[in-house]
Design brief:
mainly beta, 7-stranded mixed sheet, 4-stranded antiparallel sheet, 11 strands, about 0% helix
Length: about 120
């Protein structure tokens, strides 16, 4: 069974940092991504990692502030978020594509609220 479980969300002030975690089921994934969805808006891509070229990419809105990384030993993907802004407020979702089928899986989401 494929499972993605996010954690680490919360309420922070502008300028603060937060690290989200996504525990995966230990299966082999070809890529990992973080998405977010703010109230009344569509879900948008935030950051991604591809095993094929060990490359990362980021949405322009978070470039230079957010970093995606993975701890293979812990089967966990992270999203380090620095210099948070109120417009970063959203539910953040971890997503991954299973290498065997290329099917995309989603976590349940974790709320991040940035407010003074």
């Amino acid at each position: 069974q494929v499972q993605l479980v996010e954690s680490g969300g919360g309420l922070v002030h502008p300028g603060d940092s937060l690290r989200l975690s996504c525990a995966t089921s230990g299966r082999t994934f070809s890529s990992y991504d973080w998405f977010r969805q703010a109230p009344g808006k569509e879900r948008e891509f935030v950051a991604g990692f591809r095993w094929s070229n060990s490359g990362t990419n980021y949405a322009d809105s978070v470039k230079g502030r957010f970093t995606i990384s993975r701890d293979n030993a812990k089967n966990t993907v992270y999203l380090q978020m620095n210099s948070l802004k109120p417009e970063d407020t959203a539910v953040y979702y971890c997503s991954a594509r299973l290498s065997a089928t290329m099917r995309r899986y989603w976590g349940q989401g974790t709320q991040v609220t940035v407010s003074s």
